């Protein structure tokens, strides 16, 4: 499939597998034992330029915890220089002074996960003592600096107070609050092998993800469907290559046109309510779903 037939508008850039938290539901299986992988700063700069040349509009830096990646400021500045919009998905516990300056200078948007209005409940999910206090304080700081920030409340544990968490974010001034459930990927799968049936069916449609070893995936959840590697081939060759066609065909064979309704999304900055989510969520229509799925609609 050519670039004209399937334009690439958005890419997740997973710059590190290192994270200071150890959430049970982490789809990327990141942890304090993770690494920055094999991608060099030069590799990332080249890939960002290639994405811009291909017509991409936005990138989202993710991890692991992207703020732990030492060269994140350089990558953000380069992305803005070549005309890309930038969002950073962070747990908001480790933002050094230089990053605040870069966020403001480069008009970066932020996104974060928030698990409860109760510190003990939140920290039980992240397995990092004090994470709730730091995340909440940095949400307040971002908003005070005029940095756009959206929040996602993921239902992970029984009695987690997800609705109270959403209300807390709204009270702080967060205007966009989404809801989600644990996805059956990474540690969230509890050891089960991922399948195409667990995806939404819109993977690789105008979007892709690139990991810290250079692997290209159809989305952050579809990392078991490797399309190519940017350390071996340029991004345009991967996007228009034979393997890309095979992956698209495999996804279409299982999921057809993909999900049509979803819970309020957390991962894509260009998505609004009713954008696709994975079928494994179970109850995908936000007009009827309960629990975390209705956070955005009822908050």
TrEMBL record:
It holds the Pfam family Radical_SAM. Keywords: Iron, Iron-sulfur, Metal-binding, S-adenosyl-L-methionine. Residues 5-213 form the Radical SAM core domain. InterPro entries: 4Fe4S-binding_SPASM_dom, Aldolase_TIM, Radical_SAM_PqqE_MftC-like, rSAM, rSAM_sf. SUPFAM superfamilies: Radical SAM enzymes. Transmembrane segments: none annotated. This is Radical SAM core domain-containing protein. It comes from Streptomyces thermogriseus.
């Amino acid at each position: 499939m050519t670039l004209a037939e399937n334009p690439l508008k958005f890419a997740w850039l997973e710059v590190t597998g290192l994270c200071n938290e150890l959430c049970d539901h982490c789809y990327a299986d990141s942890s304090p034992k993770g690494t920055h992988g094999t991608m060099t700063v030069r590799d990332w700069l080249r890939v960002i330029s290639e994405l811009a040349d291909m017509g991409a509009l936005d990138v989202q830096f993710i991890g692991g915890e992207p703020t732990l990646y030492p060269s994140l400021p350089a990558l953000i500045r380069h992305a803005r220089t070549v005309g890309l919009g930038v969002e950073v998905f962070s747990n908001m516990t480790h933002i050094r002074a230089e990053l605040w300056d870069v966020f403001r200078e480069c008009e970066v948007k932020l996104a974060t996960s928030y698990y409860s209005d109760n510190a003990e409940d939140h920290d039980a999910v992240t397995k990092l003592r004090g994470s709730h206090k730091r995340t909440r304080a940095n949400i307040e700081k971002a908003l005070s600096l005029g940095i756009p920030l959206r929040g996602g409340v993921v239902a992970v544990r029984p009695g987690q107070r997800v609705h109270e968490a959403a209300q807390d974010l709204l009270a702080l001034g967060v205007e966009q609050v989404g809801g989600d459930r644990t996805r059956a990927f990474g540690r969230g799968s509890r050891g089960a092998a991922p399948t195409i049936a667990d995806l939404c069916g819109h993977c690789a449609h105008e979007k892709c993800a690139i990991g810290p070893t250079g692997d290209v995936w159809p989305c952050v959840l579809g990392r078991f469907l490797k399309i190519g590697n940017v350390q071996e081939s340029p991004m345009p060759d991967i996007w228009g290559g034979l393997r890309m066609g095979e992956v698209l065909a495999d996804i279409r064979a299982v999921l057809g046109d993909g999900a049509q309704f979803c819970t309020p999304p957390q991962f894509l900055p260009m998505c609004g309510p009713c954008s696709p989510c994975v079928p494994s969520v179970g109850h995908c229509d936000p007009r009827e779903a309960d629990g975390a799925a209705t956070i955005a609609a009822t908050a």
